[in-house]
Amino acid sequence: MRRVVRGFWGPRPEPVEAVADRWLRTLDGIAELVPQAADVWSQVHGSGPATAFTADRDALLGALRTAQSATDWSDRTGTGLRLVGTGAAGWQAEVSGLAGGAPEFLLQSLAIILHAPDEAVVPEEALLSLLARVWEPDFGDVSDDDVLDALEDDAGYSVGAPVVGRTGYLSPARAALVPDDLETVREPLPGGGELLSIAAPGDSATVVRVYERLREAGALAPLPRPMDRAVL
């Protein structure tokens, strides 16, 4: 089963060293939470074959600096990096991010895509909590293809808009707009944001219902464009 754990935020200019530190904390967290997902890593490039990658700070810093040396790199867009990890039979992890920039229209992001056996227990909420603590996003979600299809078909969700899935993360200003009677488990996280436990796998209808309530309450309002801050 394919699971997607994502976080999005607006402009947050950071030195490459700070972005590398966030990446390292992310990979270390994945190794702790789902050690079977990635024994070895490779880096995916815009052109040419993937290359072996060592998940340490020096390698991350080097990869990010190499990305910044590309002829089409822009400090406003952010620095992109995509890594793929292979692990036990049936497991694979992909982590891709665009961070450290000050874009006016394109959100910064970090996504963890896990392929796991259907019967496997995956700590989805813990992975989203990890992403929230490390990257301090504006919003985030745990979704799968069925959830995303249901949100697009039944709730008018469009790619790039704030969203929640089976689990959601909302930054402090968004969490303050969550209706008190919303039937979800709300877990405060360091920094003031909240993790929302919304639905079990397969229950896309509940995700759609909660998404619509949050959108009506303003908790999923998009950042104003052009963007001038990282979070709502």
Outline:
With 232 residues, this protein is of the alpha+beta class.
Throw out a few tags for this protein.
about 230 residues; 6 helices; alpha+beta; globular
What does this molecule look like?
The structure is a single chain. The longest helix is centred in the first third of the chain and has 18 residues, at 16-33. The chain contains 6 helices and 10 strands. The protein has a 10-stranded antiparallel sheet, with helices on both faces. The protein is of the alpha+beta class and 232 residues long.
What shape does the CA trace take?
Answer: globular
pLDDT averaged residue by residue: 94
**Low-confidence residue ranges:** none
Percent of residues in beta strands? 15-25%
Helix content: 25-40%
Order of helices and strands: EHEEHEEEHEHEHEEH
Biggest sheet, strands in spatial order?
A: 3-2-4-5-6-1-7-8-10-9
- Largest sheet report: 10 strands, antiparallel
